């Protein structure tokens, strides 16, 4: 009789555990049907937010939408987050996917990267009257501005201790700082610079220097601690490489 009671109790514990796990998985599945995205706001043509709009546009969001088509997944655009805050919210689990990031060893410790979706060349730019910079050493003791948290590539990272760094929140701030001579140079992806100068008719005031910096692969990323990691990995596997 005692054996029967123990056996029944053991069976009830197993059933309760399985039921609890099943309920947890179901809850996670429902939660993962809605993902929050953030990312670059001025990185033409890959990821950007038009003035007066709240939604991401560009090649990266298009690739993501294609990957989740017919999968009953909805996206919330947290488009007013500056880059560094987007990184922090990703690590906290409040952002599920960041649109557009470079790979670094530090990020790889906590982030899961998609396959490379494109490549982006980093460039140095300034006012037209600045002498051409052709060697990285020519930047020693100069002021260089770029977004807080942006990965700068190995060549530039190697001289950071020799330059004066000005971190900004939004790409647009760099152009104003250069025009007011509050900084010497800006550092951004080439396509972002070329598009901004063209759209704002500033090509006659700025130039891109011939200095060769790194060309970096562009990824979508999520946190390795994200509760929806399994589903996001599946989405990432279905992403298609983009082209301009």
Brief sketch in words of this structure:
By secondary structure, the chain is an alpha/beta fold. The chain folds into three domains: 1-31; 33-115 and 226-237, D-Maltodextrin-Binding Protein, domain 2 (3-Layer(aba) Sandwich), CATH 3.40.190.10; 119-216, Periplasmic binding protein-like II (D-Maltodextrin-Binding Protein, domain 2).
Overview of this protein structure:
The protein is of the alpha/beta class and 244 residues long. It has three domains: 1-31; 33-115 and 226-237, D-Maltodextrin-Binding Protein, domain 2 (3-Layer(aba) Sandwich), CATH 3.40.190; 119-216, Periplasmic binding protein-like II (D-Maltodextrin-Binding Protein, domain 2). It has helices at 2-31, 59-68, 83-92, 105-108, 154-157, 171-179, 190-199, 229-237, and strands at 34-39, 42-43, 47-48, 74-77, 97-101, 111-113, 118-127, 143-147, 164-168, 185-189, 206-208, 215-223. The strands form two sheets. Strands 1, 4, 5, 6, 7, 8, 9, 10, 11 and 12 form a ten-stranded mixed beta sheet that branches. A hairpin with a 3-residue loop joins β2 (42-43) and β3. The radius of gyration is 23 Å and the shape is globular. Mean pLDDT is 89; it is low at 10-29. Pfam families: SBP_bac_3.
């Amino acid at each position: 009789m005692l054996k029967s009671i123990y056996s029944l109790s053991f069976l009830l514990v197993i059933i309760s555990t399985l039921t609890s796990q099943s309920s947890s998985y179901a809850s996670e599945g429902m939660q993962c049907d809605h993902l929050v995205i953030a990312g670059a706001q001025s990185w033409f043509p890959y990821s950007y937010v038009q003035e007066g709009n709240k939604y991401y546009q560009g090649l990266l969001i298009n690739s993501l939408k294609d990957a989740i088509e017919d999968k009953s997944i909805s996206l919330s655009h947290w488009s007013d987050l500056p880059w560094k805050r987007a990184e922090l919210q990703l690590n906290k689990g409040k952002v599920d996917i960041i649109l557009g990031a470079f790979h670094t060893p530090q990020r790889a410790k906590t982030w899961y990267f998609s396959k490379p979706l494109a490549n982006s060349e980093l460039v140095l730019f300034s006012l037209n009257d600045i002498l051409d910079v052709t060697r990285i050493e020519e930047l020693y003791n100069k002021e260089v501005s770029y977004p807080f948290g942006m990965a700068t590539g190995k060549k530039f990272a190697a001289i950071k201790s020799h330059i004066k760094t000005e971190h900004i929140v939004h790409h647009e701030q760099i152009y104003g700082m250069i025009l007011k001579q509050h900084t010497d140079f800006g550092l951004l992806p080439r396509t972002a610079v070329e598009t901004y100068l063209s759209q704002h008719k500033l090509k006659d005031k700025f130039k891109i220097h011939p200095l060769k910096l790194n060309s970096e692969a562009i990824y979508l990323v999520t946190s390795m601690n994200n509760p929806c990691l399994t589903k996001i990995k599946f989405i990432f596997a279905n992403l298609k490489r983009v082209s301009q």
